[in-house]
Every structure is written in structure tokens, then in C-alpha cells.
Design brief:
By secondary structure, this protein is of the alpha+beta class. The chain contains 17 helices and 11 strands.
Length: 506
């Protein structure tokens, strides 16, 4: 009578039938794909298996814990993407996962021994193995690159230090459009807007400030208060946008000499509005151009020809011959042309220029969708630090991202400290404080029915494209209120039609 012996098809496939060997190959490949290190444990390589399975177990545990926390608290998802410690850890850990996975896959292939697989199944198995290798290596390598870029962005763009608490339940952030660029000396923020955001609801008010406002006051605790106790009242050259240079001249008196100009401007805006300004964000011209290019350009419809002007002749104050035109109709603008579309002054009114700036902002916001960010993330991350500077600490970015989502779902109110309510050359700051306070109170009391109502696309970037207030005595009146305050209920359909005749985003 013949002796029956048990044959282990996993360790000794040569004694198994051909179908069993084929199933064995697929089974080992599946185990390694799901649990790297599992095959090595099966074959008795305990030291290797212990290391690989530890990496696998830690990875799955961290992923599960993170998933549970995100379900409980959405903000933690943004913390993962903005916290420098977590990003640094992930930048190191993800390659460890990739290396462990790839090494285990290759070792599994060695243990499977392709020659034991039937000819019919061999081609499909090799194709599946190569595909699995690409599926593992590709996303993890790409993820490592994205994580490293995000870590660099957070490190380069955002400041260190402690997060500040809201003042009276609101965050007040100053947005500056800087004209610092080639051929210009010093920084003159031609665009100044203060965004006041309710820390709980995200209800926001945009406060527009003319750059040519005179006699701006400084709070008592500002270093410039002792130099200008009666306000910045040294003549018609002492405008709001010139405060930046005053800060630079007295940099040693400020807490952070490197950002003395920004701090001085924040102090002045606090004096003008009656609100404590906690943070600033500033964008410069060349950086704005690069940022648009990193997005792949923007698409909008222009209703009029917009000139690309030559430099101004200092002796006459007039532009030289027009160098080119941005024609009417649907246009795909690169950074250079988008910048000119937003800033061109020649042959147009302030109102037209502001509407064009809003169109550029709206196009940027519409194009900054998840698909664009993911496919162009590295170029966007590379361009952003050169375009934007801010003192918002990295430790507060996660909560601000969460708050930004609330802002996006709310109707954005606005108030402009411009004529006829405020005269830039002779401003009444008591009236300015009252206008700001009334608008904030109105915003706070607005009903929940405002949720989902139309808001100004990109109005939180209103400073980004260089919106400014000229000395035109009619500035801020009439249809110009639409450009900065499109969220106001006072904007009627006629004004909207006038704006659309200048430009709109399809």
C-alpha cells in the first residue's frame, strides 16, 4: 500500500499540480500587495518580516487613526497638510513605505519563481506584477514630491510663532497689493483692503481703503505715534500708501525690523478703521505674473480693448506709444497679459480698471480647483512664495483653511471708505469707524438665509491684483461701488450689466 505524504504547495511548489502553482503565485502576490512582509513571514524569514510588518502595521494604524480623527474634526485634515512636523514626518515615512513595498514585491517574485507558472498564466502574471509595481511606486513617489513641495511652501511662505486669538470674535487681515518690481524702488502698497472675518461663522466684511488717504492716525502703542501724534499729517505727499516707507525708516523701533513697513501699515489701517489688525498678506507684481503662469493662464471675456502701455515720460507724465492691445472677446491670458489687463490705466476710468481686476481675481479663483492644484502643484508652490508674503503663522494655517471654506459659502459684505462718505484728503475717522462698525454689525445680524447667496468671487483676494483708489473726486461713488462691493444689495442689475460690458468670466 503506497504511503501518502502531505505536500506544502507554498514552500515546495514543485510537488504541487500546475493549477495549484498558478494559484500560489497569484495568492503570494496578493498577500504582498496588501500586507508587505506577510510572504516573508510565511517563508520563515522572521527578522525581515518583523521589520516589514512593523512598517506596514504602523502605516495602517496611522491611516486609520487619521481617518477617524478627520471624521470627528475636519480641521485635522488641514492640519496634516499644513503642520511642518507632520509634513516632515510624512516626507520621510512615505519613501520608507515605498521602499519596503517594492523590496517585498521583488522578493516575493523571487520566491514565486516564474518558471513554476504555466505558460498561459505567465504573461498575465508578469503584466499584473509590473502594473502593481507602477501603481505602488508611481503614487508614492509623486506623493513624496508633493509632500516635500508642501513642506517647502509652508516653511517659506508662513511665519513661525504663536497663533493669535480673534479680537471681539473676528480675525482682521490686511491685504496689500505691492508695486515692488523691476524698475521700482521701495514698496508702495497701491492696494489696501482689510478683511474682517467672524471666527465662528465665516461672515466677512471687506473694507476698501484708498491709497491716497491723508492724515491717517496711529494707535497709541504704534512706534509711529510718537513721530506723528496728530496723525500722518505732513502734507499731500503723506498718504496711506507712504506709511510703509515710514515703517522702513523707523524699522529699529518695531518688534520685527524685517517687516517694519507691513507693521506700520497695519497700525495705520487699525487707526483708520477702528479694528485691531492681526495679520497681513501682500502680493507683488512679478510674483502675481508668475502665479498666473503657474496656473496655466486664466480665461475671461473682455468687452473692450485694453492697452499695453509704454513707460511714463517723467517730463510730461504721459505714457509713450501703446506697445500692444488685449483685444475684446474670449481671451486666454498668460501672466504678463493678465497683469496688464488688471493694471492698465490708459484710456480707461478707475471703475473700468477695478472691474477688470475683479475679473482677473474671479478667473483665478475659478481655475484654482482641485484638479488644477494637483496637476500643477509644484509650479504653484514654487511661484507662491515669490508672489505672496504674510505673517500668518504656519500653526494657524489649518484653522484658516477651514475658516476659508466657511467664508466661501457666505455672502461677503463690503464697505469702501471713499467719497462721498469719506473724502481721502480730509477724512473724518469717526465717520469711518462708524461705517465699519455698522457694516460689521449688519453682517453679524444677517440671517442664515444669506448662506448660499452670491458672493464676490475672489473678493478675499481683492488686494492681489493691485486695486487702488486714485485721486479722482468721484472715486467710490456710482457704479464703482459695484467693483469693490459687489456683495452689497445696493448693486442693481444696471450696474451689473455695465460691469459685464467691461469683462466677465465665462
Amino acid at each position: 500500500m503506497a504511503e501518502t505524504r502531505y505536500v506544502d504547495p507554498i514552500r515546495h511548489p514543485s510537488y504541487a499540480s500546475q493549477p495549484t502553482r498558478d494559484v500560489r503565485a497569484w495568492l503570494l502576490l496578493l498577500v504582498t500587495a496588501l500586507v508587505p512582509g506577510g510572504v516573508q513571514l510565511l517563508f520563515g524569514n522572521r527578522r525581515w518580516a518583523k521589520i516589514s510588518l512593523s512598517i506596514t502595521a504602523i502605516s495602517w494604524i496611522l491611516a486609520i487613526i487619521a481617518g477617524v480623527i478627520v471624521l470627528i474634526n475636519r480641521t485635522f485634515l488641514f492640519t496634516i497638510g499644513t503642520n511642518l512636523f507632520i509634513l516632515t514626518f510624512l516626507t520621510i515615512w512615505v519613501p520608507v513605505i515605498a521602499i519596503n513595498w517594492v523590496v517585498c514585491l521583488l522578493d516575493t517574485l523571487r520566491r514565486i519563481r516564474i518558471v513554476t507558472i504555466s505558460r498561459k498564466a505567465r504573461k498575465r502574471f508578469v503584466a499584473a506584477f509590473c502594473a502593481l509595481l507602477l501603481i505602488v511606486v508611481g503614487p508614492l513617489a509623486w506623493g513624496t514630491t508633493i509632500l516635500n513641495s508642501q513642506r517647502g511652501l509652508m516653511s517659506d511662505l508662513f511665519a513661525s510663532g504663536k497663533a493669535l486669538k480673534p479680537v471681539d470674535g473676528r480675525y482682521n487681515i490686511l491685504l496689500l497689493g505691492s508695486d515692488a518690481g523691476k524698475g521700482r524702488t521701495g514698496i508702495r502698497p497701491d492696494s489696501l483692503s482689510l478683511v474682517s472675518i467672524d471666527a465662528k461663522t465665516g461672515k466677512s466684511v471687506i473694507i476698501g481703503l484708498p491709497r491716497n488717504m491723508e492724515n491717517v492716525p496711529f494707535p497709541d502703542d504704534s512706534p509711529l505715534h510718537k513721530h506723528y501724534p496728530q496723525g500722518y499729517n505732513c502734507g499731500d505727499e503723506c498718504l496711506l500708501n507712504a506709511v510703509f516707507q515710514q515703517g522702513e525708516q523707523h524699522r529699529d523701533e518695531f518688534e520685527d525690523p524685517k517687516t517694519a513697513g507691513e507693521q506700520a501699515t497695519m497700525d495705520a489701517v487699525s487707526g483708520v478703521t477702528g479694528l485691531e489688525v492681526q495679520y497681513y498678506a501682500m502680493i507683488n507684481l512679478k510674483g502675481f505674473e508668475n502665479l498666473i503662469d503657474s496656473l496655466g493662464g486664466i480665461t475671461l471675456v473682455s468687452g473692450k480693448r485694453v492697452p499695453i502701455s509704454s513707460k511714463v515720460d517723467p517730463t510730461t507724465g504721459q505714457h509713450g506709444p501703446v506697445k500692444g492691445w488685449i483685444e475684446p472677446g474670449k481671451q486666454k491670458l498668460d501672466g504678463f497679459h493678465a497683469l496688464w489687463f488688471a493694471r492698465s490705466r490708459e484710456f480707461s476710468s478707475d471703475y473700468e480698471r477695478m472691474v477688470r481686476q475683479r475679473c482677473v481675481q474671479t478667473a483665478m479663483v475659478k481655475q484654482l480647483d482641485p484638479a488644477t492644484v494637483l496637476t500643477r502643484y509644484q509650479s504653484i508652490a514654487k511661484a507662491t512664495p515669490g508672489a505672496v508674503s504674510t505673517d500668518i503663522p504656519s500653526s494657524q494655517v489649518d484653522s484658516f483653511v477651514d475658516l476659508a471654506l466657511k467664508v466661501k459659502s457666505q455672502k461677503i459684505e463690503s464697505v469702501d471708505l471713499t467719497p462721498p462718505r469719506i473724502t481721502p484728503s480730509r477724512p473724518d475717522f469717526d465717520v469711518a469707524h462708524r461705517l465699519v462698525a455698522d457694516k460689521i454689525e449688519e453682517s453679524s445680524k444677517s440671517s442664515d438665509e444669506d448662506n448660499g447667496a452670491f458672493s464676490v468671487p475672489g473678493s478675499d483676494l481683492s488686494a492681489a491684483a493691485g486695486v487702488d483708489a486714485e485721486s479722482d473726486p468721484n472715486f467710490g461713488s456710482g457704479p464703482q461701488l459695484l467693483a469693490q462691493g459687489a456683495g452689497d444689495s445696493s448693486a442693481d442689475s444696471g450696474e451689473e450689466a455695465d460691469a459685464k460690458a467691461i469683462c466677465y468670466v465665462p
